[in-house]
Specification:
The protein is α/β, with parallel strands linked by helices. The chain is built from 17 helices and 13 strands. Helix 8 links the parallel strand 7 and strand 8. Helix 1 crosses helix 3 and helix 12 crosses helix 13. The longest helix has 31 residues. The two termini are 43 Å apart. The chain binds nicotinamide-adenine-dinucleotide. The site of nicotinamide-adenine-dinucleotide has 25 residues, from helix 1 and helix 5.
C-alpha cells in the first residue's frame, strides 16, 4: 500500500449497511466517524460490540477502535466538519402504500445542507441508501443546493453508489462485491474518490459508471430479480415435488447451463417471446400445474405478461408509424424461417387488419418455394400475404415511409444508412441504436 491516502470519512446511519461500511473503511485505515441518531448503537460501537451480527465484524471493529480509526457519535456537525467524504446509509423503508419512505433521508439531507453552508472545503457525498430512480437528481441535489446555498459539482460532489452486500456475508461482500456501480452525471470526482477509498484501480472489470437514474434502478432490478429467482425456483420445486422429482437435482442441472439459463441470453428488453417452443412448452407446463392443482401464480402469469408486452409493442408502432410501412423480418427471430408464433407476423397481421399499408421483406422466406404448412400459417394470419411480400430490401424501402426493424439489419444496415430519403425507423430489435444519429427518424422499442 505504498500510495495509500488516508481519508477522513463520515458514515451516516449505523445499521446493517452503515455499520459494515464504517468498520470496513476503518479496517482499510481511513479515519472514520460513524453517526447515528440511536445512542444505543453508538454506545455499543464505542465499546467494541457491533450493533448487528455479521461474521468478522467484531474483530475488525476491535482493531479499528484500537488503532483509533473509528469513532461513533450522534453529532452530525462534528462529523461533517471533520471529514471530507460522507457515506449516507440511512434507512429508506416502505410506506404502507409501498412507496419509498424518504423522510429519514430528507431530514438528513437538509441537515447536511445546513452544515455545508458553513464549510469552506469541498465535500463529497456518496449515497448508499436504496432510492427510487430520479431521487438523486430531482430531490437530493436540489435539496442540498437549497439548504447549503452551494452548487453541486463545484462546492460539493455527489454520486449514487448502491450497496450489494448480503446480510450474513456483509463484510466479505464489502471487500468483494459482485460489482461497483457508480451513478454520476458526467462529473467523475465523487466516483473517483470511491475507487481511491477502496483502493481500486480504474481498470478493474467490475466497476460500472452510469447515470444516477440507471444506478438507482439497477439496485431495484437486482433485488426484484433475486426475488423472482427464489419464487421461480420454489414454483418449479413445487411442480417437481408433485411428480416425485428431486427438485434440487433438477435445479442443479438447470443451473449448470451457463450458456442459455444462467446468462445474459433472454435478458434484453425487446419483443415478446414467440416461436415454436417457448409458447408451446409454457402452455404444457401450465396444463401440468392445473392438473396437479397447484397454485403457481408466477408461471401462470408469464404468458399474460408476454401478451401485454405485445400489445404495448403494437401501440408503440401505431404511435410512431406513418404512411406506408415496410417490415424487415417476418419469422419469429433472426436466421430462421420458422413462422410459428412469430411476434413479427402477429404484429403485421394486426396492422394489416387495421388497414395499414404494409410490405414485408424476409430474406429467408421465399414465396416461390413455400411449404403448405407455411402457406396455411400465413393465410390464417395474413390472407393477402402474396400481395404484401417483396423479395428485395431496397424495393421495400423505396415504397415505404416507415421501416419496422423486426430482425437484425446485418447486411442491410448500410443500405438503410445510405438511403437518401429520410425514413421513420421503428426498431424492435434494440440493436440498431446507431441509426439514432442518422438523418432518419429513429424510435427504438425500450429506448
Ligand atoms: P437500518 O435500518 O439497519 O439502519 C439505518 C440506520 O440509519 C439506523 O440505525 C437509523 O437509526 C439511522 N438513521 C436514520 N436517520 C438518521 C439520521 N438522520 N442520522 C443518522 N442516522 C440515522 O438500515 P440498513 O439495512 O442498514 O439499510 C440502509 C439502506 O441501505 C437502506 O436504504 C437499504 O434499503 C439499503 N440496503 C440495505 C441492505 C441490507 O442488506 N440491509 C443492502 C443493500 C442496501
Amino acid at each position: 500500500m505504498g500510495n495509500f491516502n488516508q481519508h477522513r470519512v463520515s458514515v451516516i446511519g449505523l445499521g446493517y449497511v452503515g455499520c459494515v461500511t464504517s468498520v470496513c473503511l476503518s479496517y482499510l485505515r481511513h479515519k472514520v466517524i460513524g453517526v447515528d441518531i440511536d445512542n444505543e448503537k453508538i454506545n455499543m460501537l464505542r465499546s467494541g460490540i457491533p450493533p448487528i451480527k455479521e461474521p468478522l465484524l467484531s474483530d475488525y471493529l476491535k482493531l479499528s477502535l484500537k488503532n483509533k480509526y473509528l469513532e461513533a457519535t450522534s453529532d452530525l456537525e462534528y462529523a461533517i466538519n471533520n471529514t471530507d467524504i460522507t457515506f449516507i446509509c440511512v434507512c429508506t423503508p416502505s410506506k404502507p402504500d409501498g412507496s419509498c419512505n424518504l423522510s429519514f433521508l430528507t431530514y438528513l439531507i437538509n441537515n447536511i445542507g445546513e452544515l455545508l453552508k458553513h464549510k469552506s472545503q469541498e465535500h463529497i457525498i456518496i449515497l448508499r441508501s436504496t432510492i427510487p430512480p430520479g431521487t438523486t437528481e430531482e430531490f437530493i441535489i436540489p435539496a442540498l443546493e437549497k439548504a447549503s446555498g452551494k452548487k453541486n459539482n463545484r462546492d460539493f460532489y455527489i454520486c449514487f453508489h448502491p450497496e450489494f452486500l448480503r446480510e450474513g456475508s456483509a463484510t466479505q461482500d464489502f471487500f468483494n462485491p459482485p460489482k461497483y456501480i457508480i451513478g454520476e452525471n458526467g462529473n467523475h470526482h465523487a466516483g473517483d474518490k470511491i475507487l481511491e477509498l477502496l483502493l481500486l484501480s480504474h481498470q478493474q472489470h467490475n466497476i460500472i459508471r452510469t447515470t444516477y437514474k440507471t444506478a438507482e434502478l439497477v439496485k431495484y432490478t437486482d433485488n426484484v430479480w433475486h426475488a423472482l429467482k427464489v419464487v421461480f425456483a420454489n414454483e418449479i420445486g413445487t411442480i417437481a415435488s408433485s411428480y416425485s422429482i428431486d427438485s434440487h437435482e433438477l435445479m442443479h442441472i438447470f443451473c449448470q447451463d451457463e450458456k442459455l439459463n444462467i446468462s445474459p441470453y433472454y435478458l434484453k428488453p425487446g419483443l415478446s417471446y414467440g416461436g415454436s417452443c417457448l409458447p408451446k412448452d409454457l402452455q404444457s407446463m401450465q396444463f401440468l400445474v392445473n392438473n396437479q392443482q397447484l397454485e403457481l401464480p408466477v408461471i401462470n402469469a408469464i404468458s399474460d405478461s408476454n401478451n401485454i408486452n405485445l400489445a404495448r409493442t403494437y401501440d408503440f408502432i401505431k404511435k410512431h408509424a406513418h404512411g406506408k410501412i415496410g417490415w424487415h423480418g417476418l419469422s419469429f427471430k433472426d436466421n430462421t424461417d420458422d413462422l410459428r408464433n412469430s411476434v413479427n407476423l402477429e404484429l403485421i397481421s394486426r396492422l394489416n387488419d387495421n388497414s395499414y399499408s404494409i410490405s414485408v421483406f424476409d430474406s429467408l422466406i421465399n414465396l416461390e418455394a413455400i411449404t403448405n404448412e407455411k402457406h396455411d400459417l400465413l393465410e390464417n394470419k395474413l390472407s393477402n400475404y402474396k400481395d404484401v411480400f417483396v423479395d428485395d430490401f431496397i424495393k421495400m424501402i423505396d415504397s415505404s415511409d416507415t421501416i419496422v426493424i423486426g430482425h437484425q439489419l446485418a447486411e442491410y444496415r448500410n443500405a438503410l444508412l445510405q438511403y437518401p430519403r429520410s425514413l421513420t425507423l421503428i426498431d424492435l430489435t434494440n440493436n440498431s441504436i446507431s441509426l439514432n444519429e442518422t438523418h432518419h427518424n429513429y424510435h427504438g422499442l425500450f429506448w
